[in-house]
Design a protein that fits this description.
By secondary structure, this protein is an alpha+beta fold. The chain has helices spanning about 5-15, 35-40, 50-55, 70-80, 85-100, and strands spanning about 15, 25, 30-35, 55-60, 65-70, 105-110, 125-130. It starts with a helix and ends with a strand. It binds zinc ion. Zinc ion binds near residues 59, 63, 75 and 80.
């Protein structure tokens, strides 16, 4: 599944960026520019329900409200006029945090009796893969 951050980068290849509107058109009605979110959708991103309905993000510049993920993209595009690379970089961090929360570290080894023979070993040591 295409991540929103990836789709934003792909959308940047299709049209130049516009601000304050989802799309800009030429005099013949052809799209000539898109905001970060519209560009992502043009690139094939299919919005997930949580992107549209879950308040999951704060503006990284300290604006005093929480936003849905999709609203954050529009806010950074229009409100702060971030480039799509900047928006994608920030979203990639949020997506990485989502993935870490969704899949906690796997247990690599459980040694409930301690590490026999190792000086200073602690009983019940658990190692995690990183
Ligand atoms: Zn802001």
């Amino acid at each position: 599944m295409l991540r929103l951050s990836e789709a934003i980068r792909l959308g940047a290849l299709l049209h130049r960026q516009c601000f304050g509107a989802s799309c800009a058109f030429d005099h013949e009605g052809a799209v000539v520019a898109t905001c970060a979110l519209s560009g992502a959708i043009d690139a094939g991103y299919q919005a997930q329900r949580r992107d549209l309905s879950v308040l999951s993000a704060r503006c990284p510049l300290g604006c005093p409200y929480r936003l849905t993920r999709a609203a954050l993209v529009v806010h950074l595009n229009d409100g702060h006029q971030w480039t799509r690379d900047q928006i994608a970089d920030h979203l990639a961090q949020l997506e990485a945090a989502d993935e870490r929360r969704a899949s906690p570290p796997r247990l690599a080894a459980v040694d409930p009796v301690g590490r026999a023979g190792q000086e200073g070993a602690t009983r019940g040591t658990v190692d995690f893969e990183t």
